[in-house]
Amino acid sequence: MFRQLNNIETAFKHVRLFSFVLIGACMAICCFVVYESYRMVSKTGERIYLLSSGKALSALATDRRDNIEVEARDHIRSFHYFFFTLDPDDKVIENNLKQALYLADNTAARQYEDLKENGYYNSVISGNISQQLAMDSIRLDMSSYPYYFRYYGTQRIIRPTAILTRSLLTEGYLRNVSRSDNNAHGFLIERWRILENNDKDIQKRQ
Q1: Which region among 19-33, 101-115, 120-134 has the lowest average model confidence (pLDDT)?
Q2: Cα separation of 75 and 77, whole Å?
Q3: E strand or H helix at 188
Q4: Which among 90, 64, 81, 8 is positioned nearest to 185, based on CA atoms?
Q5: pLDDT by residue (tens digit) across 131-184?
Q6: Read out DSSP for 9-44?
Q7: d(CA 93, CA 182)
Q8: What are phi and psi of 127, to 5 degrees?
Q9: Which of 3, 13, 76, 132 is the most exposed place for a label (fewest CB within 10 A)?
Q10: The architecture CATH gives domain 64-204
Q11: TM spans, by residue (predicted)?
Q12: Residue 1 pLDDT greater than 50, yes or no
């Protein structure tokens, strides 16, 4: 009888040990599943899809701090491209300047109004003039806010009889604003002014 009791007690200990091991294994598996699920969800959340021309393009989403300087430079480049790229077509001029003015404050709007009042855009249309801008470099100071920048570029003013090359130097500041369809980078150019816009070269056209 005592031997039978010992066997029951031993069996109970084995069952209890087996139960503890099973519970521990279940908890470990549950923790692993939760961790892997969280990791997969986080990884999936970093991947976004962009729709372009009816095609879905995959891209990785990152924190803005990782790309803030790249975005700031592209914002400055885009503003100057739209502001200074002109063709003898009032719709092209209107569309480009409309996009440019979304990216800057009233200092750019005043510059536009001054050029318009002086008949600059009418002379571009009537004279069949095209104006192109190539960026040379951007100096950007990210150490203080708002962010100061200087833009260096080269203008080509193409007339029916000649091509004029001019240097362009501007400066301004960037501050953060909300992103929108009209301002994808979420910056606004402030206190923008043209420091230099001098003739460099002129070539006669055949």
Answers
A1: 19-33
A2: 5
A3: strand 187-204
A4: 64
A5: 999 999 999 999 999 999 999 999 999 999 999 999 999 999 999 999 999 999
A6: HHHHHHHHHHHHHHHHHHHHHHHHHHHHHHHHHHHH
A7: 17
A8: -95, 5
A9: 3
A10: Roll (3.10)
A11: 15-35
A12: no
The overall pTM is greater than 0.85: no
The secondary structure of the chain, three-state, reads CHHHHHHHHHHHHHHHHHHHHHHHHHHHHHHHHHHHHHHHHHHHHCEEEEEECCEEEEEECCCHHHHHHHHHHHHHHHHHHHHHCECCCHHHHHHHHHHHHHCECHHHHHHHHHHHHCCHHHHHHHCCCEEEEEEEEEEEECCCCCEEEEEEEEEEEECCCEEEEEEEEEEEEEEECCCCCCCCCCEEEEEEEEEEEEEEEEEECC
pLDDT, tens only, 8-52:
667 667 667 767 777 877 787 888 777 776 676 555 555 555 555
With b for 16 or more beta-carbon neighbours within 10 A and e for fewer, the 3-24 pattern comes to eeeeeeeeeeeeeeeeeeeeee
Cα–Cα distance, 72 to 103 (Å, whole number): 11
